[in-house]
Specification:
By secondary structure, the protein is α/β, with parallel strands linked by helices. It has three domains: 3-236, Aminohydrolase, N-terminal nucleophile (Ntn) domain (Glutamine Phosphoribosylpyrophosphate, subunit 1, domain 1, 4-Layer Sandwich); 244-447, Glucose-6-phosphate isomerase like protein, domain 1 (Rossmann fold, 3-Layer(aba) Sandwich), CATH 3.40.50.10490; 452-591, Glucose-6-phosphate isomerase like protein, domain 1 (Rossmann fold, 3-Layer(aba) Sandwich). The chain is built from 18 helices and 24 strands. The longest helix is centred in the C-terminal third of the chain and has 22 residues, at 428-449. The chain binds 5-amino-5-deoxy-1-O-phosphono-D-mannitol (M6R). The site of 5-amino-5-deoxy-1-O-phosphono-D-mannitol (M6R) has 15 residues, from α9.
Length: 609
């Protein structure tokens, strides 16, 4: 949901802003712009389209400057156009703003500012920020931003500069993330750490109601009342190389292939093969608290929600606690009832999803203990939760979540085992068996990945199909949902995920020779049931592709195509079954010429409601 960047330092600012925006492009990509200050003059360049269009424009007609700000947009107010692209200006053009978020009272502010004589040029909510700061400006940009912030309602992360207060960038936030990178003689401000990593590994994350005043001599932090704030400097551990494609055509494909490593990294140091124990002391929730958990409530969106659904099976089987899984966007508006023995588990790879964050806050207000499962260190969700279980997936750039999904599954399995052990609900033999099997999962994932070419060939045969049905049961029902979501979001092909037992209650009416079914059929307790469901589809001229164990001699007689995976413990099969579905979606999308890493209408980090 929009990416913002700012740079103050001795290096040439334009290439730094452009490189930074490329790394933030996954957050939004309908228009982009930069503003730089050169010898007391602001120069702005904005384009409709992606960063490469901005780059082309700058190649044709370069800008120079000593410091500046930039933005990549995901439109909320006002269609994607050059005029609506950020940075936005005040009446004088001497002050510019980049913004991520939504100003909820912008119409009222706009009307009032217009009455006072301000001239608006765009349809955006952001433009009111520029005019409001202009109105408040008395020589200090810091004070003007502070005064304006007091009148803004909604969510905003902003970076502002004005030639009337030279050599200054002011950043402030309520809601969306902002991180300040503290390099040698240079400071960056950004929506996430990715653009910063090339320059420094030292960073400070702004909290809501805080601002950073960036000058050539360094940065100072304040709260909105003007009180100086001492920020903790975090050491970023992500390797900048993780945000390169490294020979893969798309980030998504690279990230699919990174999954074995990601699962290993997320397990690392958390399991003991000697004792069969899972150790999660790091999460910050005490063993007595966990021992008294009588129910878990999982809240998430999108792919993280699907991971939560798989987690329900893990937690119920291994910890024997009842689990509810909720869409954050629905949950936050419910009159929900929660008791003190409920553990709320919020799952979010980005740690910034607005609905998940709002649901988390609502649960905290009702005194529930909240554990976050996230991939983003010091993200809003990580900071606001009582405990955090980090996934170690590294940065995920493809808008479609892949490696963060399997990392979330790993974290959920660890949590289920840990909770089961603390509560005494799981015997040692089961713990050992699962931990041992979990150790083997990354290698088995590698075996699935080694068959990518066969999945690519299979995808070639289905490129022109317009509808797909995905079905699974038990722990693979959520994988069916996830497989369908992957196909929908990157290839724009209609796909539905269903629990196979529900087919005969309606969806089977869709089946004909034009609607292939991807069935997830590992050998587990519902295997025979699934074979019956498959027969029902075959009896109606349906074409069935089955993800099944490679040593399953029976399945080829029941389906048209088998996509083999190594056999595994039934509960752990989602780690393997999801991989061919990710690859299938990827190859269909790539062959259809879709923009795989940046699908239309989407953004990686959904920081607006
Ligand atoms: O960052 P989060 O995990 O909270 O994001 C949740 C969803 O926005 C995300 O999973 C989305 O559905 C992806 N496009 C799925 O590929």
């Amino acid at each position: 949901m929009c990416g913002i960047i700012g740079y103050m330092g001795p290096k040439s600012v334009v290439p730094i802003l452009i490189e930074g925006l490329k790394k933030l492009e996954y957050r939004g990509y309908d228009s982009a712009g930069i503003a730089v200050v050169d010898k007391g003059h602001i120069q702005t360049r904005r384009v409709k389209g992606k960063i490469h269009s901005l780059e082309e424009s700058l190649q044709k007609s370069p800008l120079n400057g000593s410091y500046g700000i930039g933005h990549t947009r995901w439109a909320t107010h006002g269609r994607p156009s050059e005029e609506n692209a950020h940075p936005h200006r005040d009446c004088t053009g001497q002050l510019v703003v980049v913004h991520n978020g939504i100003i909820e009272n912008y119409l009222a502010l706009k009307q009032a500012l217009k009455k006072e004589g301000h001239t608006f040029r765009t349809e955006t909510d952001t433009e009111v920020i520029a005019h409001l700061i202009e109105k408040k400006f008395r020589g200090s940009l810091e004070e003007a931003v502070r005064a304006a912030a007091a009148e803004l309602e909604g969510a905003f992360a902003v970076a502002v500069l004005s030639v009337e207060d030279p050599d200054t960038i002011v950043a402030a936030k309520v809601g969306p993330p902002l991180v300040v990178g503290l390099g040698d003689n240079e400071t960056l401000v950004s929506s996430d750490v990715n653009p910063i990593l090339a320059y420094t590994q030292n960073a400070a994350f702004l909290e809501d109601g805080e601002m950073a005043v960036i000058k050539p001599e360094g940065v100072k932090f304040f709260d909105f009342s003007g009180k100086p704030v001492t920020k903790k400097i975090e050491h970023l551990t992500w390797n900048p190389l993780l945000i390169e494609k490294r020979g893969f055509k798309h980030f998504m494909l690279k990230e699919i292939f990174e999954q074995p490593e990601v699962v290993r990294d997320t397990l690392l140091g958390r399991i003991s093969l000697d004792s069969g124990k899972v150790r999660l002391d790091e999460i910050g929730l005490s063993a007595p608290l966990l021992k008294h958990v009588r129910k878990a409530l999982v809240i998430a969106c999108g792919t993280s929600y699907h991971a939560g659904l798989v987690g329900k099976y893990f937690l119920e089987s291994l910890a024997h606690v009842p689990v509810e899984v909720e869409y954050a966007s629905e949950f936050r508006y419910r009159d929900f009832v929660i008791d003190k023995d409920t553990l709320v588990i919020v799952i979010s790879q980005s740690g910034e999803t607005a609905d998940t964050l709002a649901a988390l806050r609502a649960c905290k207000e009702r005194c529930a203990a909240v554990l976050a499962i996230t991939n983003a260190v010091s993200s809003s969700i990580a900071r606001e939760s009582h405990g955090v279980l980090y996934t170690h997936a590294g940065p995920e750039i493809g808008v479609a979540a892949t490696k963060t999904f399997t990392a979330q599954l790993t974290a959920l399995l660890l949590l289920a085992l840990n909770l089961g052990q603390i509560k005494g609900n799981i015997d040692q033999e089961t713990s050992y068996a699962l931990i041992e099997e979990m150790q083997r999962i990354p290698h088995k994932m590698e075996k699935v990945l080694a068959r990518a070419k066969a999945i690519e060939d299979l995808a070639s045969r289905f490129v022109s199909f317009s509808h797909f049905l995905y079905m699974g049961r038990w722990v693979n029902f959520p994988v069916a949902l996830e497989g369908a979501l992957k196909l929908k979001e990157i290839s724009y092909v209609h796909a539905e995920g269903y629990p196979a037992g529900e087919m005969k209650h309606g969806p089977i009416a869709l089946i004909d020779e034009k609607m292939p079914t991807l069935a997830i059929v590992p050998k587990d307790k519902v295997y025979d049931k699934l074979l019956s469901n498959i027969s029902e589809i075959k009896a109606r001229a349906g074409y069935v592709l089955a993800v099944a164990f490679e040593d399953d001699a029976q399945i080829p007689q029941h389906v048209d195509v088998v996509i083999p995976i190594p056999s595994a413990h039934p509960l752990l099969t989602p780690f393997l079954t999801v991989v061919p579905l990710q690859l299938f979606a990827y190859f269909i999308a790539a062959k259809r010429g879709a923009d795989v890493d940046q699908p239309r209408n989407l953004a990686k980090s959904v920081t607006v409601e």
